[in-house]
Design goal:
By secondary structure, the protein is an alpha/beta fold. The chain folds into four domains: about 5-50, no CATH class; about 55-315, Rossmann fold (3-Layer(aba) Sandwich), CATH 3.40.50; about 320-415, no CATH class; about 420-690 and about 700-710, Nucleotidyltransferase, domain 5. It has a nine-stranded mixed beta sheet with strand order 20-21-22-19-18-15-16-17-23, with helices on both faces. A hairpin with a 3-residue loop joins strand 15 (about 440-450) and strand 16.
Length: about 700
């Protein structure tokens, strides 16, 4: 048997022999030889052999006609004969893509306008007309959905694979592993000249918020980029690989806020005009293509599709019902029958009276009517697009079909919100740090909202012209309370109110003012609040709000004034009333909560260069991205906008009411208390703060008692 020593000796002799062979053949060592073998193996695994285009002539002929190109490569989407409105839409989008000019198109909901725009963008990226394009939507998520739709076509569409293998085949070879794109290599024949190429790097990207087409030699679309962005994201200076944006497709830009608020629509308009409109280069502007359905006459889409307001956008509004039928009376009867059919169906009884009526009178009912799309109806439910239109009217109402199908929204579209939003408050910063009183402020007020577990407080400094600075806010735990129990709650609230006032008076900003005023909500645990305010004495008063909004006594202001005795008017929407029992009576500030919440919101909606505007502390951003200070005010801004005032038409009259969006409205309450406190101290917009009376000027107790009796 061979020993271990003999085996080692033979192994050493073999290694020496191999080393001599390596030296004779130019191989210095075994490691280098093995590395070379592995390198060649990796290169062979990375190499993708791209097949040739199956029908070059078909591809080139279809690229000359956008409509035919769409029908050929996407037969499941565009199976029907193209309608005149759709052909006009296709031509308008193509013109914007090729020339860099703008185009705004409003088409019916469900007409396929988004799919047409997405696939035309794909077409012009494949054939090299567009090198960098951006898909915009109301949010990044919506925009990414459009991008995924385009990606799926390249990954799965066999017709595209046959005509555009230089793009589709390298993508498919990733096999759902996008990281392979970083080291993939290709060989094949160039599409432009037919000459062969070997082992070229594709260097493309196939994931995330943007995709880059493979850099395949001879490919017209090599390196084309399609990116996505939300209209709420930063877009200024957007460029990729030193390219400026050729085309920006903006899909349904309006949100519910911009469709109801002129202020929000104005902000969105500025973003589309300034931020997106400036993405082009020196030699070619960015072509903006807006694809939308009008939601209201306030919406930004309405303005961009109006040639009198935005002539450069060359706005086009397409109606579903181009010409109405002559016999509207018959259609009115049909609508009533259709509603009756649905009522019967809800009880399990089958009814087709409406369909029978239409079939019997179709010639008369269709007379004079012209619809945009002869194929737009559900074959299992209707037999014509006109019937589909009136079914939608019966189901969803005249306002719906006017808006969503005919792009002619009524002048008033239900309740109109004030337009205040969280982001506006977050961005309205003074530039001063927390706790610092800006120059020329002459008044300091504090508002405290009382709850079972927390006190929410806001501190403001005011200029004489009504400009207010929120220099501090926070919440203070009500210690010693137990969830579900009331024992000790009054004592805990009483203790925390006193602690809040001590903390407030210890602050440097409080010590800068000779006098200040704090109002404390007394709607919850009233006796505890009264007792705390009475114990503290000067500079603090309980407050009670009356109105219909959340967090206040739910009676009208007129009723509150009528039922409250011993009252002294202070200013519009504010009086004080003597409340409590016996020696525990205290002066309570009674305010019109709805009015003062509106006043609070109006101040945030006031331009920052006008008197009466409100500010938060912190550094304001100079670009689109929020600063840490702005982001830090998120919870406060959410609370201040937890309720909004809306206007509605009820029985022909304009009615204003409050709508609750969140229960977290505590800082809204504490903030409007600071406004009421400022009004009590004499603050008026573009006015002056009344100077506090000196001790010699203040009325005596007897004068005050006589004044109260006189008012009563």
């Amino acid at each position: 048997m061979t020993t271990a020593t003999e085996l080692k000796k033979k192994a050493d002799e073999l290694r020496k022999t191999l080393a001599k062979i390596d030296k004779a053949t130019g191989k210095s060592n075994i490691r280098e030889r093995e590395a070379d073998v592995k390198r060649r193996k990796r290169d062979s695994e990375r190499l993708v052999i791209v097949p040739d285009c199956k029908d070059r002539e078909l591809r080139q002929s279809l690229e000359l006609d956008d409509a035919k190109w769409l029908s050929h490569y996407f037969p499941e989407l565009f199976w029907y004969e193209w309608q005149p409105q759709q052909l006009e839409m296709i031509d308008a989008i193509r013109h914007a893509i090729e020339t860099g000019e703008d185009q705004a198109i409003a088409a019916s909901r469900g007409e396929g306008k988004t799919k047409i725009a997405e696939r035309l963008l794909l077409k012009h990226s494949l054939q090299g007309t567009v090198k960098l394009s951006v898909l915009f939507s109301v949010s990044g998520g919506h925009a990414r959905d459009s991008l995924r739709s385009i990606m799926r076509e390249i990954e799965e569409n066999e017709l595209l694979m046959a005509s555009y293998p230089e793009v589709c085949f390298p993508v498919r070879e990733l096999e759902n592993t996008p990281n392979r794109a970083h080291y993939q290599r290709v060989s094949g024949n160039r599409f432009d000249t037919g000459e062969p190429y070997e082992s070229a790097e594709t260097k493309f990207s196939w994931c995330g918020d943007e995709i880059t087409f493979p850099f395949v030699p001879g490919s017209p679309g090599a390196g084309a980029i399609i990116a996505t962005r939300g209209l709420d994201a930063a877009v200024r200076g957007l460029n990729k690989l030193n390219r400026r944006v050729d085309v920006a497709v903006i899909d349904d830009p309006d949100t519910e806020d911009s469709a109801r608020s002129e202020e929000q629509a104005s902000k969105l308009e500025k973003r589309i005009d300034s931020a997106i409109g400036g993405l082009g280069g020196q030699r070619r502007g960015v072509g903006r293509v807006i694809i939308t359905t009008l939601q209201s006459r306030v919406a930004v889409s309405y303005k961009f599709t109006d040639v009198t307001q935005k002539p450069a956008m060359k706005g086009k509004r397409f109606r579903f019902l181009i010409h109405p039928p002559e016999r509207q009376d018959l259609w009115d009867e049909y609508v009533q029958l259709r509603k009756s059919d649905w009522m019967h169906e809800s009880t399990g009884e089958k009814s087709t009276d409406a369909m029978q009526f239409y079939v019997a009178n179709r010639a008369e009912m269709d007379q004079g009517a012209v619809t945009a799309n002869a194929f737009r109806f559900y074959p299992q439910l209707q037999i014509s697009p006109l019937q589909f239109y009136f079914d939608e009217l019966a189901k969803k109402g005249a306002a719906y079909v006017a808006t969503e199908l005919d792009n002619d929204p009524p002048a008033e579209m239900g309740p109109q919100e004030s337009g205040i939003d969280k982001a506006r408050i977050q961005r309205q910063l003074s530039g001063f740090p927390q706790g610092e009183v800006p120059p020329d402020c002459t008044l300091l007020t504090q508002g405290v909202d009382v709850g079972k577990y927390w006190l929410y407080w806001t501190v403001r400094a005011w200029k004489a012209d009504g400009t207010g600075y929120t220099i501090d806010y926070g919440r203070q735990a009500v210690l010693g309370t137990t969830c579900g129990e009331e024992d000790g709650l009054d004592r805990a609230i009483h203790r925390e109110i006193i602690q809040r006032m001590n903390d407030f008076r210890d602050q440097p900003y409080s010590q800068q003012f000779r006098e200040s005023l704090t109002l404390v909500d007394s709607g919850y645990r009233t006796d505890a609040v009264y007792k705390a305010c009475s114990q503290i004495g000067q500079g603090i008063m309980p407050v009670k709000g009356f109105g219909t909004s959340a967090g206040c006594v739910q009676v009208s202001w007129h009723e509150a004034q009528r039922k409250t005795f011993d009252k002294q008017p202070i200013c519009d929407g504010v009086f004080r009333s003597r409340q409590g029992e016996g020696s525990a009576k205290v002066w309570v500030v009674c305010c019109h909560a709805d009015k003062w919440k509106s006043w609070e919101h109006d101040r945030w909606m006031t331009a920052t260069d006008k008197p009466g505007c409100l500010f938060l502390w912190g550094e304001k951003s100079t670009g689109q991205r929020m600063t840490s200070d702005e982001l830090g005010h998120s919870h406060y801004a959410h609370s201040v906008t937890a309720e909004v005032e809306i206007e509605d038409i009820v029985k022909g009259a304009l009615v204003r009411r409050w709508k609750s969006k969140s229960k977290e409205n505590h800082w809204l309450d504490s903030s409007y208390y600071t406004d009421v406190a400022a009004a009590i101290k004499g603050l008026r917009i573009i006015g002056s703060v009344k100077k506090p009376l000196s001790p010699s000027e203040r009325p005596s107790a007897r004068d005050l008692a006589n004044r109260i009796r006189g008012i009563a």
